[in-house]
Known about the structure:
Number of domains of chain B: 1
Number of strands of chain B: 5
Bound molecules: cobalamin, guanosine-5'-triphosphate, magnesium ion
CATH topology of the largest domain in chain A: Rossmann fold
CATH superfamily of the largest domain in chain A: P-loop containing nucleotide triphosphate hydrolases
Strand content of chain B: 15-25%
Helix content of chain A: 40-55%
Structural class of chain B: alpha/beta
Largest sheet of chain A: 7 strands, parallel
Oligomer: heterodimer
CATH superfamily of chain B: Cobalamin-binding domain
Largest interface: A-B, 30 and 32 residues
Number of helices of chain A: 12
Order of helices and strands of chain A: HHHEHEEEHEHEHEHEHHHH
CATH architecture of the largest domain in chain A: 3-Layer(aba) Sandwich
Mean pLDDT of chain B: 94
Radius of gyration of chain A: 21 Å
Radius of gyration of chain B: 13 Å
Distance between the termini of chain A: 25 Å
Strand order of the largest sheet of chain B: 2-1-3-4-5
Number of helices of chain B: 5
Structural class of chain A: alpha/beta
Order of helices and strands of chain B: EHEHEHEHEH
Number of strands of chain A: 8
Strand order of the largest sheet of chain A: 4-2-5-1-6-7-8
Helix content of chain B: 40-55%
CATH class of the largest domain in chain A: Alpha Beta
Largest sheet of chain B: 5 strands, parallel
Distance between the termini of chain B: 17 Å
Amino acid sequence: xxxxxxxLIQKMVSGDKRALGKIITLMEEDSSSSAYIVSKIYPLTxxxxxxxxxxxxxxxxxxxVDKLVSCYRNENLKVGVIAIDPTSPFTGGxxxxxxxxxxxxxxxxxxxxxxxxxxxxxxxxxxxxxxSVKALDAFGNDVxxxxxxxxxxxxxxxxxxxxxxxxxxxxxxGDTIQKLKAGIMEIGNIFAVNKADIDGAEKCILEIKxxxxxxxxxxxxxxPIVKTFGDRDNGANELYEAIKNHHKYLLExxxxxKKKIARGKADLIYILQNLFIKKFYEAINExxxxxxxxxxxxxxxxxxxxxxxxxxxLKKFL
Amino acid sequence: xxxxxxxxxxxxxxxxxxDRGAKVVARALMDAxxxxxxxxxxxxxxxxxxxxxxxxxxxxxxxxxxxxxNHLFKRVIELLKNEGAEDIPIFGGGIVPEEDVSYLKRIxxxxxxxxxxxxxxxxxxxxxxxxx
Lengths: 318, 132
Ligand code: B12
Ligand SMILES: Nc1nc2c(ncn2[C@@H]2O[C@H](COP(=O)(O)OP(=O)(O)OP(=O)(O)O)[C@@H](O)[C@H]2O)c(=O)[nH]1
Ligand SMILES: [Mg+2]
């Protein structure tokens, strides 16, 4: 098993797309494969620029990603895309349709697009997103674009993974911007007001401006607001320029280094959390979990006491 | 270890605009817990093969109601071979006359589902076929 993973890694690093596809599948399936692969490829990572695109469902994220890929390709940069769609909590299945908007790049040898389902992870990404970014990085992509699931107030994990976050909003969101204030609106380095062809774009821009005025400026970067038209070509260049400016700002201000350190810390905590949960499931089988659930439901015991009692059993895994 | 998630590409090659069947099948596979990569209308064989590789799918399902099935299936199979990805199984559905079904099977199409095909049968077929 391990030796065939080594072979895959070897192939991936030498530019084999099939191997890259398979490595991402392994990462999605099982965190111990991720652990092995990341430990092997880590020295090759850290070169790519990571761009996050987030915003409410249907706001035009995929359409904008499509346009941005074209911009990067015009400068002959190699691009990886991870596009995330939700897993149905009822069936565990998913229809991954972000790709439909990116069809102009399907056969471009320097573009690799991977669709991913959340598989139960909250926060707007999937468990394997951060590791898959590392695989795309080791593959030699200059830029990696992540499209989150349709996001609202709580899906803010993209900020831990990306260098630059673009928040896409649309005019007809109206006063929803108010509601989003505490969530994704706080993580934007750039705001794209998409579907600027429909009424209310100016009002939307004004609302974002007002919201930004209330929040303190973050380390000398004032988030620009750009009008975009995801289904047309206008606006894409302005957004692209804004993104490049932010990248430049990150490098010149030393923020990039700080972000990398913060990302390292976030990675540690995230991996540890997942490890705990995995070990928990290894230690306690479904029947026992059901029994414990019953005890909690019938008020025989409270969840904290149960955890206290479980800790000795979990310790042997550490 | 958690159960392996099946990832299936459902694609419509050529100029065929009949997408109801493809959507019905995509939906049924999702309801059966699979991850369906749906690429929309007017895909070329080249883009289908590229997508299958990048998405690392367990199988490719083509939906063709235009009559161009013989040519399109053959081309996708050729391209998969060129890419060294002929191990990805390919199946499909749509309007395909009986005599063409046997031709398609000979060139390597696993199975073809016609009008009225039961989506439960399609789901159990995929599970069986991909259960290596
Ligand atoms: C509805 C329909 C249309 C709609 C399509 C709407 C849409 N967005 O899909 C409209 C009106 C637009 C249309 C247009 C045309 N149509 Co029309 N259309 C039909 C019709 C009546 C039903 C098709 C349908 O939706 N069935 C319901 C779905 C659920 O069934 P299905 O697609 O067969 O899918 C099932 C199986 O085949 C299978 N399946 C399908 N795909 C896949 C994929 C996989 C992976 C798997 C496992 C299974 C699977 O599972 C599904 C579930 O059971 C058929 C006749 C018929 N009875 O099939 C003609 C038919 C397909 N059309 C035909 C033709 C000729 C046309 C036109 C060229 C012009 C015309 N004469 O009307 C245009 C072309 C449009 C274009 N751009 O391609 C012909 C095709 C002839 C041929 N292939 O030799 C047919 C067969 C009618 C006929 N007898 O002449 N059409
Ligand atoms: N009028 C108008 N429609 C647009 C614009 N940009 C995108 N759309 C349309 O909006 C719809 C949704 O676009 P997507 O790019 O799929 O949106 P998304 O945010 O990726 O959607 P999810 O991934 O499902 O959350 C599509 O029908 C697009 O064609 C725009 O600028 N103006
Ligand atoms: Mg999308």
